[in-house]
Amino acid sequence: MIHPHALVDPRAEIGAGVEIGPFTVIGPEVVIGAGTWIGPHVVIQGPTRIGCDNKIFQFASLGEVPQDLKYRGERTTLEIGDRNVFREFCTVNRGTGGGGGVTSIGHDNLFMAYVHIAHDCRIADHTVFANCASLAGHVYVGSHAVLGGFTGIHQFCRVGDHCMTGAATVAVQDIPPYVLTAGNSARPYGINVTGLKRRGFPAERIHALKKAYKIIYKSGLRLDEAIARIEELAPEYPDLDVMVRFLKIEGRGIIR
Question: Kind and range of the H or E element at 111?
Fold first, then answer.
């Protein structure tokens, strides 16, 4: 299943049923799990570990050295889970020594054309990155997040579970879970109701999240006061506990 015009380093580990297209380059210390499909003209450098049943389209570049002036050639890695799709011209860099050394991607994510994932980013599961969405270094993106086309996320920011960004959003602070945001700089526009309904959230759970949103953004309370108010509701609604835990982590502050 390896095209004769592909260049595969003998130190790479290729799983069963992997297909590699012509003119693709697979470097040393690359591990590719069973059932993964790799199109033509792809470049994968190691150390990189790719799970099973991924699809990597033409001209993607995975596992290249980070675009960070502090990088001095230290050994760092890229870890990718299962069933991810990387469309044309996606770029994903390895980590840096100062950032933990690992860029990690979970399972079942879709990265549309020209998406960029910088060094030391951590991406959970079931996310969608529309065309040209880009993460700077050290960004965290939670499960089921959807980033609109041309979204840009500042380094060290966090993007919570189930949130959504509009096209051309620029976030320089953290985006709390479940929140819909847009603009440059990003501003909140309520709860991501449509996305939550598509994932089977019942009306009462969405109603509780709307309450939490109003406490954070409409009550006039300081953030610590808003967190305390939401904690009072959290025992009844587990989704609010997810939001509280996110808000309690010190970061770049949340979008306002």
Answer: strand 110-111
Q: Examine the fold and report which residue of 164, 190, 216 is the final residue of a domain before the chain moves on.
A: 190
Annotated catalytic residue, options 137, 152, 166, 195: 137
Both 89 and 117 in one domain: the answer is yes
Last residue of a domain, one of 141, 168, 190: 190
Return the percentage of the chain with pLDDT > 90, whole number: 97
Residue with tokens 């819909």: 180
Q: Of residues 39, 95, 116, 119, which has the active-site annotation?
A: 119
Q: Is 83 in the same domain as 27?
A: yes
- 138 annotated active-site: no
Tokens of 216: 């954070």
Q: Is 97 a catalytic residue?
A: no
Mean pLDDT of 121-127: 98
> Active site includes 82?
no
Q: Which of 120, 125, 174, 239 is catalytic?
A: 120
Residue 251's pLDDT is: 87
Confidence of residue 216 (pLDDT cuts 50, 70, 90): very high
